[in-house]
Design goal:
mainly beta; six-stranded antiparallel beta sheet; 4 helices; 68 strands; about 5% helix; about 50% strand
Length: about 850
């Protein structure tokens, strides 16, 4: 599909019309205002304007079906109408249609014309097709396929851009014919795209001379079918005398209006090949390339495996009156990369067309090969040689056409192709790097509204790569966005572009093995290198754990000039972490978690955008630096709180719980607490703070694991604190001192304390007080003090005995704390009056309801004996 320039009126005003049949004149709306433009590699950015696309020929005769295959090559949906023109120039319009970005749309012309109420067996049995829409340059790519499965015949009608005011159509149409004889016949169709009559001169080149044929007179929108056999007959020449040759159709007048397409068919054998009319304005180099050519017996890994044995034919035509030389190079996949074989140059005389079969080259190749590409270098000025490449299977019924691309034709560096897969049909995308440098490729395979990207596709110098779309679909490998080609998809599109300023070409081959026919799609969408627009980092946010790593990828965002179609490609950016204590990152993008929190990962990359230089007549690159950012979130959790929880006996109201608090980072996650021990129970297990209640004493230190799981956005980390259930078991004396006069015995005292107490006596006097301090110890060996709890402590005595046993023993009040202070004093009237006596009793001390000490205490007037 090729872009050509001419000014013609547009039918865009008819977008709202349903069905309309008009006569010999086109309906022309008023021109619409163009949008503002900005400079790019192609000059000013293409504005939204009325656009017109042409397909030179369709046919519904002789068992042929014609299908219009369209691909949405714009970033946005597009509305359009189809104008089908009969051979005589009558026009019928479809209702408005819409195509989505990347969508493949198939239009069966027989069905469409029937729905529009016209006779598909009459004037509309053959003709041409136009498409009208409002848009930028080439937001819609397409090709018209004519097939006759019963005879294994298939032909292609390429799209031509004929948008008003652009002047894209060539003034001269040049093509070749070849291999005539037997049942083969060459026919050319020429269509008048304008609403005015057009006259054209016709020339036939053969036998080294140019021969003038009768001029052609076209009615508005008329399509004419030209038989080479008939034209040669008018010159009294048979096809056997001119099996190869060239045709030139040159319209008279200042505004080109003609487009053309050709074919060679042999209904008896199923031989069919399409003949193209290359645009002279796009022939900017003296070198042509063909991609994805089967040669010899294809190897087992070839997409052509099992299809037969092939001999490529290179057909070249010298358009000038001076001789030239032609050098053919076969490029093929070698063991160490792309390899080449170049036979000696061939002479190409003036006005001569040569059919050059490459069967003699096969002996110099390391067969079998999966495929090859073919380069044609000629000695004359750019555009002075045109040609075709067709690979013919030995039986003669299967022909693989490989359209030639000029190495400096920017349009061939991108494409939007329809694909189809079924049990008998394969779709293969061939990409050829025609340069001495590597070439990155933007790739987007679309099916069912799903866009699937290959972001590391790169071609070596002179490499041809075959991408089997069935394998891409069946691998079900997620792309950078997690998308997969739907597993059952049978139809879709593939949109690709070169990302570097090097010559690349590509085409899609749909091979129907059962019918032994192959369709080639060369639908191009833009003649410029995409601009580097921005930088993305993926994953945009990643959550992981300390000491774990993740690889961040930098993706350059490229935007195509013509329709803003976008591709992503992995690039080697320079990475750094803006918060290394949380996450470090290598310059290549591997981040490793260090501690809890969030770190920003920064990527820096320099790529190029292009501006057209009118002096150099080329795109000049300019650096553009962009920064991309992502986040690294490292999930951690820690536990704070006591290492022990006290146990209490039944009936005690002492403490038997503790709170453990978890701190999860980043904040905002959820908590879940658990334990595998029966020595405690847990409550509030889904909050940051859990309550631990003792149930039975530990048998070893830290034998009770309490675990918290912290989950943040689906990523979990855990922490465990091992605690002990401590049972007050014994006392450990930490101090013991006695004050001989530190206690006052007072008959009038109303409260009993360590400093004073009431006794039944005749007056007050000073007595001693002994103070002993104890730590409350746990059950382990060696015992440990239980600290940090308000343990419930109490004492009791047995019935006293001794000479002064009638005086009561004053029992201390219950206390709480993790330290126990016990004081001993004795008040007696006997002692006050200078007598002597003693009293004995057994003391029992409890902590949290557990007996921690039992002692025999003896009191005398001068002191207390405490073991």
């Amino acid at each position: 599909m090729r872009r050509r320039r001419v000014f013609l009126p547009s039918l865009l005003a008819l977008l709202t019309v349903g069905v309309l049949v008009v006569g010999q004149r086109a309906v022309s709306p008023r021109a619409q205002n163009l949008e503002s433009s900005s400079p790019t590699c192609c000059g000013l950015r293409e504005p939204v304007a009325p656009r017109q696309l042409e397909f030179p020929y369709y046919t519904l005769r002789d068992g042929f079906n014609s299908t219009l295959l369209l691909v949405g090559a714009s970033a946005a949906p597009l509305d359009f109408i189809i104008a089908v023109r009969s051979a005589s120039g009558r026009t019928v319009l479809s209702p408005s249609m819409t195509i989505q970005s990347g969508e493949k749309l198939s239009v069966d012309l027989r069905v469409l014309l029937t729905e529009l109420g016209v006779d598909v067996n009459g004037d509309f049995a053959e003709g041409s097709v136009s498409i009208y829409f409002n848009g930028t340059i080439m937001p819609l790519a397409g090709q018209l396929t004519m097939s006759n499965p019963a005879r294994s015949l298939v032909l292609e009608s390429e799209m031509v851009d004929n948008s008003p005011g652009l002047g894209l159509l060539p003034s001269a149409l040049n093509a070749v014919w070849w291999g005539l004889g037997g049942g083969r016949e060459a026919r050319f169709t020429a269509s008048n795209t304008s609403g005015d009559p057009v006259t054209a001169d016709v020339y036939l080149d053969f036998q080294g001379e140019r021969h003038e044929s009768a001029p052609l007179a076209f009615a508005p929108h008329e399509t004419k079918i030209l038989s080479i056999t008939h034209l040669l007959g008018e010159l009294k020449v048979s096809p056997a005398q001119a099996p190869e040759g060239g045709i030139s159709i040159i319209g008279r007048g200042s505004i080109p209006a003609l487009i053309a397409q050709g074919k060679i068919t042999d209904p008896n054998t199923g031989f069919s090949t399409t003949l193209n009319f290359p645009d002279p304005k796009l022939q900017r180099a003296s070198a042509l390339h063909a991609s994805g050519v089967p040669i010899g017996l294809p190897s087992k890994e070839s997409p052509y495996a099992g299809a037969g044995v092939f001999v490529p034919h290179v057909i070249v035509r010298n358009l000038t009156g001076a001789p030239q030389s032609v050098t053919i190079t076969v490029e093929y996949p070698g063991e160490d990369g792309p390899a080449q074989a170049t036979p000696p140059p061939l002479a190409l005389e003036a006005y001569t067309t040569k059919d050059i079969p490459l069967d003699l080259v096969l002996a110099s190749l390391p067969l079998p090969l999966p495929f090859c590409s073919i380069r044609i270098q000629y000695s004359g000025a750019p555009g002075s040689v045109i040609g075709e490449v067709s690979s013919i299977e030995a039986k003669g019924d299967l022909v693989i056409d490989s359209r030639l691309a000029n190495e400096r034709d920017g349009w061939v560096g991108s494409g939007a192709h329809p694909w189809h897969l079924d049990e008998e049909t394969e779709s293969i995308l061939f990409l050829t790097n025609m340069s001495e440098k590597s070439a990155r490729i933007g790739f987007d395979m679309v099916a069912g509204g799903v866009h699937y990207y290959l972001t590391r596709l790169k071609l070596k110098p002179h490499e041809t790569r075959a991408i089997d779309l069935r394998k891409v679909r069946d691998e079900q490998k997620p792309d950078l966005k997690g998308n997969k080609v739907p597993a059952g998809a049978t139809d879709g599109s593939v949109v690709w572009t070169r990302l570097d300023h090097v010559p690349v070409m590509g085409r899609l081959v749909v091979l129907q093995r059962h019918n032994r026919i192959a369709s080639g799609y060369d639908c191009h969408i833009c003649d410029c290198d995409p601009d580097f627009f921005d930088l993305y980092v993926t994953p945009a946010s990643y959550i992981f754990l300390p000491d774990r790593s993740v690889l961040y990828d930098a993706l350059a965002w490229f935007r195509e000039h013509c329709n803003q179609y976008e591709w992503l490609y992995n690039v080697d950016a320079s990475f750094q972490s803006l918060n290394p204590p949380v996450a470090t990152v290598t310059t290549e993008g591997t981040a490793t978690g260090q501690s809890g929190g969030t770190a920003t990962i920064k990527a820096l990359y320099t790529e190029y955008y292009y501006i057209y230089d009118h002096v150099l007549i080329d795109c000049i690159d300019h650096p553009r630096q962009r920064t991309g950012y992502a986040t690294a979130k490292v999930v951690t959790v820690s536990i704070s709180g006591p290492a022990n929880v006290p146990l209490r006996a039944a009936g005690s109201s002492g403490p038997n719980t503790i709170n453990l608090t978890a701190t999860g980072t980043p904040s905002g996650g959820s908590y879940s607490w658990s334990t595998t021990s029966s020595k405690v129970t847990l409550s509030n297990t889904t909050s940051a703070t859990v309550t631990v209640t003792s149930a039975s004493a530990s048998t070893a230190v830290a034998d009770v694991p309490v675990k918290v799981t912290y989950t943040y956005s689906g990523t979990s980390n855990t922490a465990t604190q091992n605690i002990s259930v401590v049972r007050p078991t014994s006392l450990n004396k930490t101090s013991d001192n006695t004050n001989p006069t530190g206690h006052t015995c007072d008959p009038n005292a109303t409260q009993n304390t360590c400093q004073q107490s009431h006794f039944n006596g005749g007056g007050s006097y000073a007595s001693y007080v002994g103070n002993i301090t104890y730590d409350i110890m746990d059950q382990f060996s060696p015992p440990r003090p239980i600290k940090g709890f308000a343990l419930q402590n109490s004492e009791s005595y047995t019935q006293p005995s001794g000479p002064c046993a009638g005086d009561p023993i004053i029992v201390g009040q219950p206390s709480s704390g993790d330290t126990l202070i016990d004081c001993f004093y004795f008040c007696s009237e006997t002692c006050r009056t200078g007598g002597s006596c003693n009293v004995s009793a057994t003391q029992t001390i409890k902590s949290n309801g557990f007996v921690v000490a039992t002692k025999g205490i003896t009191w005398t007037c001068s002191g207390a004996s405490v073991p």
